[in-house]
Amino acid sequence: MPSYNKSGTLMSKEYIAYLGEKYTIEWYYNSRGKSSALEYYQSLSADERIKVLQLFKRMGDAGKIKDTTKFNNEGDRLYAFKPKPDRFLCFFYIGKKIIVTNAFRKKQPKLPKPEKDRALKFKNDYEIRVKQGDYYEQS
Predict the structure, then answer these.
(1) Class at the top of the CATH hierarchy for domain 16-132
(2) What is the per-residue pLDDT for 109?
């Protein structure tokens, strides 16, 4: 869990979801320090969280998941980890990073447009804030 100071300001973020040999998988945080993907993950049961982490580990260590029922290209440089029945949208970034933007429970065959739009918005925000040097906290 992130930690807060007495005034309720976020002190530090846990960016890394999984540190693998090939990729580091990170949670996206907005400018207010909120990660909807991490919050969604934390709301899952222990068994569901294990399924997610197994996919993160597989991708992080092997560098690929060939099974499209587990990881799929969703277009617009977005991908999805697919631990049934959930979806964790993400994108690849410089430095062998995979940034997990948002997550949801799948209720229809196709990726819902609002979820894809949200992932694209978060991706854009991440890229801008990293280039400006104000995404990652300075130690």
Answers:
(1) alpha beta
(2) 87
